[in-house]
Amino acid sequence: MRRHAAQIARACTSELRAALRAVRVRAVSGAVRAASATFTLAWPPGRRHAAALFAAGILAAGIYGWFFTSTLSGRLPSALDWRAASAVLERDSRPGDAVALAPWWAERAREVLPAWIPVMAFPRLAGEDLVGVRRVWLLSLPGAPGHRLDLARDLAGRTGAVAGPQRLGGLELTRYDLRSPTLPLAFLPDRLASASVSAGGRPCSPDRRGVFRCPAQPFVIVAREVREVDYLPRPCLYAHPSPGEPIILSFPAVPLGRVLRGHTGIVGEAALEGKAPVRLSVKIGDEEVGSVEEPPAKPGWHTFEIDTVRHAGRSGTVTLTVTAADVARRHLCFDAYTLP
């Protein structure tokens, strides 16, 4: 009985294998015939095929656009998320803190965060001095288009300690404590109110907003502003000289160290126009210690550094003079600060 059952099982198995082989052969044969028919229809390619591919591309782009827009609101922070971030910074921030944005175009932060915290909207921070900043709060929108980890990597390379990330709905907040912060003895743009300003030998007076205006030349101004240099916002001293009449800024009782460092840049698209350069010279007391010319066809935020070791440990008057032979749209944005 068992022998007959085994024979029957072997026979069934053999028939099953034969059936499976037949199915495979028919499937392969059908696939070959379908591929051959498809190739016959699609080759040689003609106008109808190009039109079909173009229509398919338009359809795919439309579907992707619909999916992108329909899911975007769920990936961006809500008003409640922004208020939560503001509350955390209101509670935990302190002097020497700044906020970096990732992605850098998330400018709504300027409207909702505490007003006393500087906001840095830069795509990278690797080459930035971050003057006076001890801790950076990285405010990230992980679900936003264009979000990348570049800023986090830049900060991680110059950080001694990290706190976070703290998730706040559609936002993330991470604090980076800088290992070697750039702490100046004096940051001259912040001392503009105590400076004296003249243009062409005639004094200029500040208005109620602290902007120095020269009565003889109303378009000549000096102000502490945030201006666009090479498409990025830069807090700086903003000056527009008159032809052949330099602007002179004198800052009294400035604590001096071993180095005076600063930056220069032409505001806006004028940096691309190839006009005559603008010259910035620096004096300590009556001695000119250095000068720099802003290149006429090289946009950017350019660093300069002047050795002041002979004056280290003292206070003195620092005079900055801005001159330009051709001043058409040569609006200069610059800063300067003394370092120990």
Mind explaining what this structure looks like?
This protein has 3 domains: 38-71; 79-178; 186-339, Jelly Rolls. The chain contains 5 helices and 18 strands. The chain has helices at residues 2-42, 47-75, 79-92, 109-112, 150-156; strands at residues 97-102, 119-120, 135-140, 159-168, 171-178, 186-187, 196-199, 202-206, 212-214, 217-229, 232-239, 247-255, 259-266, 278-284, 287-294, 302-307, 315-324, 332-339. The longest helix has 41 residues, at 2-42. The N and C termini lie far apart (103 Å). Residues 1-13 have low confidence and may be disordered.
Report the C-alpha radius of gyration, rounded.
Answer: 33 Å
Order of helices and strands: HHHEHEEHEEEEEEEEEEEEEEE
CATH topology of the largest domain: Jelly Rolls
In percent, how much strand structure appears in the residues? 35-45%
Question: Quick gist of this model?
Answer:
With 340 residues, the protein is α+β, with helices and mostly antiparallel strands. 28% of the residues lie in helices and 36% in strands.
Short key terms for the protein model shown above:
single chain; five-stranded mixed β-sheet; Jelly Rolls; alpha+beta; 13-stranded antiparallel β-sheet; 36% strand; 5 helices; 340 residues
Q: What does the secondary structure layout of this molecule look like, with pairings?
A:
Blueprint (H helix, E strand, L loop, with lengths): L1 H41 L4 H29 L3 H14 L4 E6 L6 H4 L6 E2 L14 E6 L9 H7 L2 E10 L2 E8 L7 E2 L8 E4 L2 E5 L5 E3 L2 E13 L2 E8 L7 E9 L3 E8 L11 E7 L2 E8 L7 E6 L7 E10 L7 E8 L1
Parallel strand pairs: 1-2, 1-3
Antiparallel strand pairs: 3-5, 4-5, 6-18, 7-8, 7-12, 8-9, 9-10, 10-11, 11-18, 12-17, 13-16, 13-18, 14-15, 14-17
